[in-house]
């Protein structure tokens, strides 16, 4: 559970690092947006690295990446709707559902030892 919570927090930071300047920093020079984003991303790395280290063993590397992607999309939906004030269209929802199905397949079946 700590892996999941840490991944949620790291993704909140990374989402703001990558996309936060789209709302408030449009008039900033690009170098300023990059430096501010990099500073925010530093905090994300300080959370994401322990999340993955704690989770590895309970989850495979593939599973950790899939968890991270599902968390990223979930966080981004909230960010896009509430922060960027974008509408969540039906086709985006369908795409997210398909990604959820992909996550299901990654966890529903036990991989053979050695990954084959």
Summarize the structure.
The chain is mainly α. 78% of the residues lie in helices and 0% in strands.
Summarize the topology.
Elements: H1 2-19, H2 21-24, H3 30-55, H4 61-83, H5 90-108
Helix pairs in contact: 1-3, 1-4, 4-5
Explain what this protein looks like in three dimensions.
Helix 1 (2-19) crosses helix 4 (61-83) and helix 4 (61-83) runs antiparallel to helix 5. This protein has one domain (2-115). The model has no long low-confidence stretch (mean pLDDT 89). The two termini are 27 Å apart. It is flat. The protein is built from five helices and no strands. It is mainly alpha-helical.
What is the overall number of helices?
A: 5
Strand content range: under 5%
Anisotropy-based shape:
flat
Radius of gyration: 16 Å
Distance between the termini: 27 Å
Quickly give the structural class: mainly alpha
Total domains, how many?
Answer: 1
The main sheet comes to:
none
User: Which bin fits the share of residues in helices?
Assistant: over 70%
**pLDDT averaged over residues:** 89
Following the backbone from N to C, one meets helices and strands in this order, namely HHHHH
Low-pLDDT ranges: none
List how many beta strands DSSP finds.
0
Label this structure with key terms.
116 residues; mainly alpha; 5 helices
């Amino acid at each position: 559970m700590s892996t999941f919570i840490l991944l949620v927090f790291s993704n909140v930071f990374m989402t703001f690092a990558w996309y936060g300047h789209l709302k408030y920093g449009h008039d900033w020079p690009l170098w300023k947006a990059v430096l501010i984003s990099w500073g925010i991303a530093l905090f994300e790395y300080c959370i994401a690295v322990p999340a993955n280290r704690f989770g590895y063993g309970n989850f495979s590397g593939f599973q950790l990446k899939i968890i991270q992607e599902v968390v990223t999309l979930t966080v981004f939906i909230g960010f896009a709707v509430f922060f960027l004030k974008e509408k969540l269209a039906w086709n985006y929802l369908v795409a997210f559902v398909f990604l959820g199905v992909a996550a299901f397949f990654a966890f529903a079946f036990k991989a053979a030892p050695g990954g084959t």
